[in-house]
């Protein structure tokens, strides 16, 4: 049986997809340098290779040795403020390393590719542009978003030049954990609101900060489209199946199409955990759009995707359960 190469499969989202692939009876090879990933979060059934996606020779060897038919590319750095302080780290690890990975795919004839892109490619969409569609102009405002958009451009151009098709998935705010408790968000430095709230509820942090309470939203705090990681993992399987059927390349938003304010998320975490933790109101952070919501019509229509976990309390419950067990 041919296999699927999952880069970054020891990370938060990659490990969920790796479990999903194994559940579907796929042969999975994970390539991860464990810079932020966790060995224990990967499925035992997967073959693990400790290495870097920017290592061209290694990747060429892996693609051939494991008869890889498709690549799912999660590996990368994801901390937006860090990307502002150290942009070249992001252009190296997210853009240049992906260039090496793509070269290896072209050299070995691997022509199916699923890529983790991000809503950060849209930058600060205006109120009139919400919810954002895939046609909303891309205008990243930080090196993280730019490093991912540059990868989208490479994919488009490689598709034009070679026998190569891809699905680029623009994730909105990914949250929650595997309902079976096999993996979750273990990334150090994670700044994701639901994770940080869960840690605060469980006493692992002293207090929670809200950055900005004077936005023009229903309660003054930012609104985001939170998608349960298991629903997102399913999208990857659908993307792979579309590529296997020979379907064309595409870019798709991944979100539910509605959102919650920071205060609503905090209330949900307090409600589900039954812990009333301290919340501090802090000034706005530069570069935070007031509202970011996906128009996911294309994803639903083209892949027949139907979320199974579109429920804030369930997202929070799985996130809390994961924090409690780690
Ligand atoms: N978490 C989110 O909300 C979110 C939102 C939008 C997009 N994304 C994208 O999804 C992907 C996965 O994010 P995540 O939240 O799972 O992050 P993560 O940090 O948990 O996972 C990234 C994984 O990649 C590995 N890695 C990093 N650089 C590598 C390299 N050069 N070679 C091999 N392995 C490497 C890390 O060890 C880690 O296991 C990223 O590409 C990210 O940009 C995430």
Can you give keywords for this protein?
326 residues, alpha/beta, Rossmann fold, UDP-galactose 4-epimerase, domain 1, 2 domains, 7-stranded parallel β-sheet, 3-stranded mixed β-sheet, 14 strands, binds nicotinamide-adenine-dinucleotide, Epimerase_deHydtase, NAD, UDP_G4E, UDP-glucose 4-epimerase activity
In short:
This protein has helices at 12-23, 56-65, 80-85, 87-108, 143-161, 193-201, 229-244, 262-273, 297-303, 312-325, and strands spanning 3-7, 27-32, 47-50, 68-73, 112-118, 165-171, 173-175, 207-211, 223-224, 226-228, 250-254, 260-261, 278-282, 291-292. With 326 residues, the chain is α/β, with parallel strands linked by helices. A seven-stranded parallel β-sheet has the order 3-2-1-4-5-6-11, sandwiched between helices. Strands 12-9-14 form a three-stranded mixed β-sheet.
Helices and strands, with pairings:
Layout: E1 3-7, H1 12-23, E2 27-32, E3 47-50, H2 56-65, E4 68-73, H3 80-85, H4 87-108, E5 112-118, H5 143-161, E6 165-171, E7 173-175, H6 193-201, E8 207-211, E9 223-224, E10 226-228, H7 229-244, E11 250-254, E12 260-261, H8 262-273, E13 278-282, E14 291-292, H9 297-303, H10 312-325
Parallel strand pairs: 1-2, 1-4, 2-3, 4-5, 5-6, 6-11, 7-10, 8-13, 9-14
Antiparallel strand pairs: 9-12
Helix pairs in contact: 1-7, 2-4, 4-5, 6-8, 6-10, 8-10
Bound molecules: nicotinamide-adenine-dinucleotide.
Residues 7-8, 10-14, 31-37, 52-54, 74-76, 78, 93, 97, 116, 118, 171, 173-174, 187, 192 line the site of nicotinamide-adenine-dinucleotide.
How many helices?
10
As laid out across the biggest beta sheet, the strand order is 3-2-1-4-5-6-11
Name the assembly state: single chain
Mean pLDDT: 97
Number of strands: 14
Number of domains: 2
Please write the CATH class name of the largest domain: Alpha Beta
Structural class: alpha/beta
Spatial gap, N to C terminus: 35 Å
Structural Rg: 19 Å
What is the H level of CATH, i.e. the homologous superfamily of the largest domain?
NAD(P)-binding Rossmann-like Domain
What is the name of the CATH topology of the largest domain?
Rossmann fold
N-to-C series of helices and strands: EHEEHEHHEHEEHEEEHEEHEEHH
CATH architectural type of the largest domain: 3-Layer(aba) Sandwich
- Strand residue content: 15-25%
């Amino acid at each position: 049986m041919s296999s699927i190469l999952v880069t970054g499969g020891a990370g938060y989202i990659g490990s969920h997809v790796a479990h999903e692939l194994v559940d579907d009876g796929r042969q999975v090879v994970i390539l991860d340098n464990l810079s932020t990933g966790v060995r224990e979060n990967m499925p035992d059934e997967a073959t693990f290779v400790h290495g870097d996606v920017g290592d061209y020779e290694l990747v060429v060897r892996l693609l051939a040795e494991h008869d890889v038919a498709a690549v799912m590319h999660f590996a990368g750095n994801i901390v937006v403020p860090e990307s502002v302080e150290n942009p070249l780290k992001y252009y190296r690890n997210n853009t240049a390393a992906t260039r090496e990975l793509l070269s290896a795919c072209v050299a070995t004839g691997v022509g199916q590719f699923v890529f983790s892109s991000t809503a950060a490619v849209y930058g600060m969409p205006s109120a009139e542009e919400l919810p954002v569609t895939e046609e909303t102009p891309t205008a990243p405002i930080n090196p993280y978003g730019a490093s991912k958009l540059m990868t989208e451009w490479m994919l488009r151009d490689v598709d034009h030049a070679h026998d190569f098709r891809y699905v680029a998935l623009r994730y909105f705010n990914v949250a929650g954990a595997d309902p079976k408790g096999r993996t979750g968000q273990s990334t150090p430095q994670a700044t994701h609101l639901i994770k940080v709230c869960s840690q605060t509820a469980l006493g692992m942090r002293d207090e929670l900060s809200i950055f900005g309470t004077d936005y023009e939203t229903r309660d003054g705090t930012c609104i985001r489209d939170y998608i349960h990681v298991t629903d997102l993992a399913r999208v990857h399987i659908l993307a792979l199946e579309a590529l296997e059927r020979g379907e064309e390349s595409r870019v798709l938003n991944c979100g539910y199409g509605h959102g919650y304010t920071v205060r609503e998320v905090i209330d949900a975490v307090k409600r589900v955990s039954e812990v009333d933790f301290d919340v501090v109101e802090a000034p706005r952070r530069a570069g935070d759009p007031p509202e970011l919501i996906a128009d996911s019509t294309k994803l639903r229509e083209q892949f027949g995707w139907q979320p199974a976990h579109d429920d804030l309390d369930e997202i929070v419950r799985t996130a809390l359960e994961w924090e409690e067990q780690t």
